[in-house]
Amino acid sequence: MADSSTLTPQEARLIAKDAFTYAYPMADSYRILFAYFLWPKNDEYKGPLNELIGTARLFTPSDTAVQTPNADTPYCLVGADLRMEPLVLKVPKIDSKRYYSIQLIDTYTHNFEYVGTRTTGNGASKYLLAGPDWTGQIPSGITAVIRSETSLALALYRTQLFNSDDLENVENIIENGYKVQPLSQFTNTEPPAAMPAVKYPRPVRLDEGETSPRIFSLLNFLLTTFCSTHEAETELMTRFAKLNIGPGLTFNPTEFSEELNQAVEQGIKDGWDTYLELKKNKLATQEVTAADLFGTREHLTETGNIYLYRMAGAILGIWGNSIEEAMYPSYYNDADGNELNASGNVCYTLRFEPGGLPPADAFWSATMYNLPEQLLVENDLDRYLINSTMLDNNELVLDEDGGLTLYIQYAQPTEEKKRKNCLPAPDKGFFISLRLYLPKQEAINGTWQTPPLKRVTP
Fold first, then answer.
1. Strand pairing of 144-147 and 125-130?
2. Selection from 421, 411, 409, 286 nearest residue 341 by Cα
3. Residue 218 and residue 201: Cα distance in Å, rounded?
């Protein structure tokens, strides 16, 4: 155990601030993984680790474990424990017109690799997903080996759904096409010796994540059990260790003086305040966008703010895609700079000029989320988004000049066009996230700009 007796409160506060920023996305990701794969009595439980889990259904307001869920594509999930052996991910041949992706996310929440339409194509293939310590032989029939920096990872599958009549086709892909199995099962050989059982600690709840020092104990568990210190973080871990934070250490606030504990609590608050400042001054103005918050370790390092941006990504939409896969321009304010709120019969419009729809090679959508929960909004229309598929299926009404106007409000419109083009809002604060899957270059380089969201008279 490190000696914290020589720490000054000022130094402890700075370490706690940086360690909290570092820990937050890892702790929040673990919170969801715990609910999905490790807590069978939880309402959000999906199934055990190392199994493909998913059905041909879209997320609804009843899905509450993940903030800002995508309601465009049915999800499949694999919580991958790679400590004992790799997993083999089998992908069937998929219609060339259908978008799909397997996003691979490590314990740090880096998107370390993709399989899918953009990166590997829609042909049948087999991928070996291995942890950092695996040194075995690559069997025949494997298309490629994918390495995770951590031995706990998540494979997040998205499969495009064209319309309600397409559910059976997507269900067939999910149930009969995608396959996951341990390497020993794939090669029909004896599995390696079982790893020691892990005693998984209770996660830090979302409502306590902003303030609880217990986040450091959870960070120590994750670093010790699933992570090897990255060469770029050796000095950082040495610094954290002064406060008993890091792999192999025990964070026990009862051993600190009252003054040090107060410094730790203040450091956590400082970390949260730094995020709020980023949100207000840079995210709200789109000086910093989702493109900066999600990606590989290398991409996030290049931003110069890897840990703060990683934290912001977890808060605003954990497990978001890298920019090449999807973009998430979002509306938190109207054209006059006021925060969005549909209470009191307030209405808004979002108009895409002719030829100005979001440029995406796969599809685009506009999804409504409530605040502060950041979850889908229950409404009488059972409509949580508007997307390009609805336009393709003639479910939306274009303006006379060929543009498209969306109507955002709490009360249901009575006029037919407004009703068809309505994106229902909650009777409170909200935000709207645009999603562009496989964004075109004009979206990535900023040539295409999001249109203003205007407050209008009902």
1. parallel
2. 409
3. 7
Domains recognised in the chain with CATH numbers: 1-324 (no CATH), 329-456 (2.60.120.1600)
Burial class (CB in 10 A: 0-12, 13-18, 19+), 286: middle
Contact by Cβ (8 Å): 356, 140:
no
Residue pLDDT, tens place only, 297-346: 999 999 999 999 999 999 999 999 999 999 999 999 999 999 999 999 89
Amino acid identity of residue 51, one-letter, is E
What string of H, E and C letters represents the secondary structure of the chain?
A: CCCCCCCCHHHHHHHHHHHHHHHHHHHHHHHHHHHHHHCCCCCCCCCCCCCCEECCCCCCCCCCCCCCCCCCCCEEEEEEECCCCCEEEEECCCCCCCCEEEEEEECCCCEEEEEECCCCCCCCEEEEEECCCCCCCCCCCCCEEEECCECEEEEEEEECCCCHHHHHHHHHHHHHHCEEEEHHHHHCCCCCCCCCCCCCCCCCCCCCCCCCCHHHHHHHHHHHHHECCCHHHHHHHHHHHCCCCCCCCCCCHHHCCHHHHHHHHHHHHHHHHHHHHHHHHHHCCCCCCHHHHCCCHHHHHHCCCHHHHHHHHHHHHCCCCCCCCEECCEECECCCCCECECHHHCEEEEEECCCCCCCEEEEEEEEEEECCCCCECCCCCCCCEEEHHHHHCCCCCCCCCCCEEEEEECCCCCCHHHHHCEEECCCCEEEEEEEEEEECHHHHCCCCCCCCEEEECC
Count the neighbouring beta carbons within 10 Å of the beta carbon of residue 230: 13
Residue at 52: amino acid letter: L
- CA–CA separation, 408 and 335 (whole Å): 14
Residue 31 to residue 190: CA distance in whole angstroms: 33
Phi, psi of 253 (to 5 degrees): -60, -20
CA separation for the pair 59, 63 (Å, rounded): 6
pLDDT tens figures, 99-114: 999 999 999 999 999 9
Cα–Cα distance between 129 and 367 in angstroms, integer?
Answer: 32
Residue with tokens 């871990």: 237
Q: Give every residue of the chain whose pLDDT is below 50, as ranges.
A: 1
User: Does the reported pTM lie above 0.85?
Assistant: yes
Q: What is the 3-state secondary structure (H, E, C) of 271-320?
A: HHHHHHHHHHHHHCCCCCCHHHHCCCHHHHHHCCCHHHHHHHHHHHHCCC
Task: Return d(Cα 318, Cα 212) in angstroms, integer.
Answer: 20
